[in-house]
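Thread amino acids onto this structure.
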């Protein structure tokens, strides 16, 4: 039941473009006690079908800038290969630390952006 709830919440957040994978990794590692590497691997499996649906919906609504998307995708794939090699080489505790720092950084940016829009 927990898996269904986590998948549903992650899917909804992902469909809104807010990083459902981040929610998924947190839930799997914090609430279900999964190893960080396992949680991130599950996120990658989750990411493929949700991304395909999102791509089709964005194409349907004419929200895709193809030239930009192709460039970003090309560099994203190359960087993913590098990131995967680094991730596999790290021990779980170090990977958790870096992931936590990343989340704090993103949260800080979101907070700053929120308050800039308010003023």
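Threaded sequence (119 positions):
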């Amino acid at each position: 039941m927990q898996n269904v709830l986590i998948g549903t919440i992650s899917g909804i957040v992902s469909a809104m473009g807010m990083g459902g994978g981040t929610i998924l990794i947190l839930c799997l590692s914090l609430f279900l006690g999964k190893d960080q590497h396992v949680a991130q691997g599950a996120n990658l499996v989750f990411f493929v079908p949700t991304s395909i649906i999102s791509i089709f919906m964005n194409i349907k609504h004419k929200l895709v800038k193809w030239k930009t998307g192709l460039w970003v995708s090309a560099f994203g794939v190359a960087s993913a290969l590098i990131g995967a090699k680094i991730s596999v080489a790290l021990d779980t505790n170090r990977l958790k630390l870096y992931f936590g720092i990343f989340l704090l950084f993103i949260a800080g940016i979101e907070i700053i952006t929120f308050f800039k829009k308010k003023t």
